[in-house]
Amino acid sequence: MPAVLVLTLLSPAAWAQDVSGGNDQAGAQAETDEEDEEIVVQATRSRRRVQDEPIRVDVLNRDEIEEKLLMRPGNIAMMLSETGGVRVQVTSPALGSANVRVQGMNGRYTQLLADGLPLYGGQASSLGLLQIPPTDLGQVEVIKGAASALYGPSALGGVINLVSRRPGDALEIEALLNVTSRDGQDLTAYAASPLGGGWSASLTGGLHRQSRQDIDDDGWIDLPAYDRWTARPRLFWDGAGGASIFATIGAMGEDRVGGTAPGRTTPDGRPFLQTQNTDRLDAGLVAQLPLAGIGTAHVRASGMRQDHRHVFGDTAEDDRHDTLFAELSLAGEAGRMSWVAGVAYQADGYRSETFPQFDYDFTVPGVFVQAEHALNEQLTVAGSARIDAHSEYGTRFSPRLSLLYRPGFWTVRASVGRGFHAPTPFVDETEAAGLSRLEPLNGLRAETAESASLDIGYARGGIEANLTLFGSDMRNTTRLDVVDPSPEAGRVRLVSVAETTRIRGAELLLRYRWQAFTVTGSYVFVDSSEPDPDGTGRRQVPLTPRHTAGLVAMWERHGVGRIGFEAYYTGRQSLEDNPFRATGRPYVELGMMGEIVLGDVRLFLNAENLLNVRQTRYDPLLRPTRAPDGRWTVDAWAPTDGFTVNGGIRLTFGA
After folding, report:
1. What is the largest CA-CA distance in the chain?
2. Cα atoms in the Cβ-side hemisphere of radius 13 Å centred on 561
3. Per-domain residue ranges of the chain
4. E strands within 122-272?
5. CB within 8 A of 118, min separation 6: which ones?
6. Which terminus of the chain, N or C, has less C-beta within 10 A?
7. What is the CATH number of domain 23-654?
8. 3-37: per-residue pLDDT in tens?
């Protein structure tokens, strides 16, 4: 719902929500807040204030996260979907799974981190977004474009870093109960407290469920059923001189059911159940220690194990994903220059009891260096480089160069970078249909990309504007080709496409703030083309709208409540292997939300998709025959849940 991402690179201010005295006083207050605000970015390792970062970093602060928390308490998908240049794409309508596409690049290229750690795996599964509650997030950082110079082969398209909330000086307890008009329920709780001696701790847990919904009564479940629990304790320590320790353990279990409704069948006359059971356990550590006269040593380490049991009709697949990560670095300053250098190691493994021919073990040791130099108060240049020795795809060099120029109320950022991605059996199609029809991998090459961006921003008083131009050239992208097109026993294979996939685009954001009111308009243009599989030329990349836009209006007064309205436009998008249409229809989604604060109690109500836009109002979701890769549904190019209302109560105690 409301609250489009604030591009805090341009103005990280916590703008006053209740200012008396008219426009001049509001503007003066806003400029004062901008100077006082300290939003420190973790994803770039330099730990600078966001406005001082030469690399563009978009940040959602806690206030914006709380707005999204009231609309979708169970996962972070909505929080990211309303961010400019970021699109959450449903990859499996049967299970509701989705990934994050940054500036037109496929979701498998986006690295999802938690406090700088790959707690959700080197390549997060498409259900990952739907299994992460936003309850305990303090801020969200988004780096767009090739970020392999920072994080290696998993960050070819960008990085999303989920930063946890830090406990305050007193006990805090929060609880939230949410129900939806589609028979969904969420119960989340958060508790944090200081422990003494510089130690503090937090604990987050949640229970989430959704009943299956066949909204258009065609026998296919449009909203899959699920039952999920999550738990995550965190431990913090802050010592003298800047030493610190952060440790976390996370656990999650989920059972998800989609496919045909009970007693119903697909067009071939047989039922087709599609389920996924997930168990995940992870642990992570982040520590820093000042070294007198040298700099600050940083240690990061994590481990993750995720067990799956998939059912695709008559086929059951049992598998396990593992990720181990460790990094040691040293950071320091010399005059106007700050630097970071270090070594990293990551191991990603996959084991399938059903299809062991797709097992893999990737090990990637790497070294990296990063330096930022302030030439004067207005101009800063930054460079970073990384060398990774991938066990399967060889040694790769990933550089990135950035520039920051701040004359007066203007901000200019320019950045170029190169990165790579290690192909795995998991692309959108195989995550949706499984591996049963996939040929053994053979001859795949590392996917590469060169990315560039130019940001021009202006911020003064209550006015903020930002224009971003971006582009990427990708080579050796992995594509799924059909070997045998028969519906019953089709075969597909993954191939590397040597020809260039080109992405060009622009983002525009305009915002005006006056006292307690904020109005935001945004527009994103993406022109993404790739070689046509039939070899006749080029085509638009499927499921990539050329035009998207949004308008959000919000009134908010702390301690009183908030009211918001939103409108989002999604333009036409090319579709692939859809028997009903070649191009998706443009559509508009409207929404409203409200919250009232009654002391420690907050009541909220949110209405999504007021126009009841739903893909199945235009065409069936279910295909007339099964696709060669095994899918029974077409791709989701519009919402599948239609008009939905949710509401509930949130209790806050303590600080």
Report:
1. 75
2. 15
3. 23-654
4. 137-144, 158-164, 172-180, 184-196, 199-210, 225-238, 244-259
5. 111, 112, 154, 302, 304, 323, 325, 346
6. C
7. 2.40.170.20
8. 333 333 333 333 333 323 333 333 333 333 444 45
